[in-house]
């Protein structure tokens, strides 16, 4: 057992060792540890004094700004700022130094910085004041957000495109509804005098000699009155609500019937038709007669586009909640200035066209909750794509 004197000696020695350790911790610089932490930071770190002179930078700051640290340390922080805004930055720095405060990352707008090669880029910067015994230091953590801003702009652009497409669809729907109402009104007003004229012509024919009844002039009158009647009927279809019953329908069968109807026209045009159905295509609840009208119109348009023959390819495909019918031709293609107006009522580039076929088709498809899309390259051909929803089992 130690004596009292020995214990006091041991305690005094331990006390001296503790005091010496405290002194060493208080006076020995922590540069190696500090520098290791600084270099491990994922963002650029730039430390300046109260006069804006760069004192310390890390490796990430070198990578961001393109300078080595020897070129930055001792220089004013404005070295890293675009020349045109340096004066503004000096004033801002002076105000900040008078009232230093912590400013977290992401507060305020993005700031422009300048690399050694003169290129500018966007940054987010956090500021933290550090008061030591003899000076004020300001720690700036710098993050290059150029790529994030690029991605954000791309996302905004895609969103703007979607909104524009949706607005265009709404505007087109409103336009179609207005034109439909006008068409129905005009059709109603024309229909009565038209039938009066047709009946009058029939009565006159009874009293005319046979050579007059069979003359070119009389045949022309009959043909043109019949044509007007057809136009009126299409104008009525444009506004008329969906007729007939909606029922589960095998669209592959509808398309096969449609292609059979168009077969004679295809042979006349020296065109080959290929149909590739999806054998797993689900039944779609629809008005089969109206969709048959849509498919026939698209097929005939495709055949008309192949004046020197070609290939018409029709495919069906099922996705999770919608089916797609593609009608592709190898025809002349559709110029951009015409494609922009394809679904506008009464717009046509055909000598005897009414400009109602595609608008009525789009109207029918829209009533079924679907849409028609068009891809076309001049000199290569066109693809009309009908997308229709269905209820999965």
UniProtKB/TrEMBL annotation:
Pfam families given in the database record: HATPase_c (PF02518), HisKA (PF00512), PAS_9 (PF13426)
CDD domains in the cross-refs: HisKA, PAS
InterPro entries: HATPase_C_sf, HATPase_dom, His_kinase_dom, HisK_dim/P_dom, HisK_dim/P_sf, PAS, PAS-assoc_C, PAS-like_dom_sf
Domain PAS intervals: 30-99
Keyword annotations of the record: ATP-binding, Kinase, Nucleotide-binding, Phosphoprotein, Transferase, Two-component regulatory system
Domain PAC: 107-157
Catalytic activity: ATP + protein L-histidine = ADP + protein N-phospho-L-histidine
UniProt domain Histidine kinase: residue ranges: 185-392
Gene Ontology terms for molecular function: ATP binding; phosphorelay sensor kinase activity
EC id: 2.7.13.3
Xref: PANTHER family: C4-DICARBOXYLATE TRANSPORT SENSOR PROTEIN DCTB (PTHR43065:SF46), SENSOR HISTIDINE KINASE (PTHR43065)
Protein name, per record: histidine kinase
Species, as recorded: Herpetosiphon aurantiacus (strain ATCC 23779 / DSM 785 / 114-95)
Lineage: Bacteria, Bacillati, Chloroflexota, Chloroflexia, Herpetosiphonales
């Amino acid at each position: 057992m130690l004596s009292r004197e020995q214990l006091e000696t041991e305690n005094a020695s331990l006390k001296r060792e503790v005091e010496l350790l405290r002194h060493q911790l208080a006076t020995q610089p922590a540069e190696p540890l500090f520098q290791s932490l600084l270099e491990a930071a994922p963002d650029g770190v730039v430390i300046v004094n109260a006069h804006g002179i760069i004192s310390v930078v890390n490796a990430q700051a070198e990578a961001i700004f393109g300078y080595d640290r020897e070129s930055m340390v001792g220089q004013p922080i404005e070295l890293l700022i675009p020349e045109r805004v340096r004066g503004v930055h000096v004033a801002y720095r002076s105000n900040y130094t008078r009232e230093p405060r912590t400013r977290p990352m992401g507060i305020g707008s993005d700031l422009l910085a300048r690399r050694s090669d003169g290129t500018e880029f966007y940054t987010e910067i956090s500021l933290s004041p550090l008061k030591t015994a003899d000076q004020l230091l300001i720690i700036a953590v710098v993050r290059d957000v150029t790529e994030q801003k690029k991605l954000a702009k791309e996302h905004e652009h895609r969103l703007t495109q979607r909104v524009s497409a949706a607005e265009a669809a709404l505007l087109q729907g409103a336009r179609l509804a207005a034109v439909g109402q006008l068409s129905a009104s005009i059709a109603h007003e024309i229909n009565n005098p038209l039938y009066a004229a047709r009946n009058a012509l029939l009565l006159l024919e009874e009293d005319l000699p046979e050579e007059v009844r069979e003359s070119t002039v009389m045949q022309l009158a009959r043909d043109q009155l019949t044509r007007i009647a057809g136009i009126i009927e299409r104008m009525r279809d444009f506004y008329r609500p969906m007729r007939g019953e909606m029922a589960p329908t095998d669209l592959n069968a509808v398309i096969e019937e449609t292609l059979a109807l168009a077969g004679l026209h295809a042979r006349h045009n020296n065109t080959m038709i290929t149909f590739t159905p999806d054998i797993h295509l689900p039944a779609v609840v629809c008005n089969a007669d109206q969709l048959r009208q849509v498919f026939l119109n698209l097929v005939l348009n495709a055949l008309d586009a192949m004046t020197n023959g070609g290939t018409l390819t029709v495919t069906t495909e099922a996705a999770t909640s919608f089916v797609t019918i593609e009608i592709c031709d190898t025809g002349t293609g559709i110029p951009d200035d015409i494609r922009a107006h394809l679904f506008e009522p009464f717009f046509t580039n055909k000598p005897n066209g009414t400009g109602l076929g595609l608008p009525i088709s789009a109207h029918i498809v829209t009533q079924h909750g679907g849409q028609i899309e068009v891809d076309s390259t001049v000199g290569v051909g066109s693809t009309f794509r009908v997308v229709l929803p269905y209820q999965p089992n």
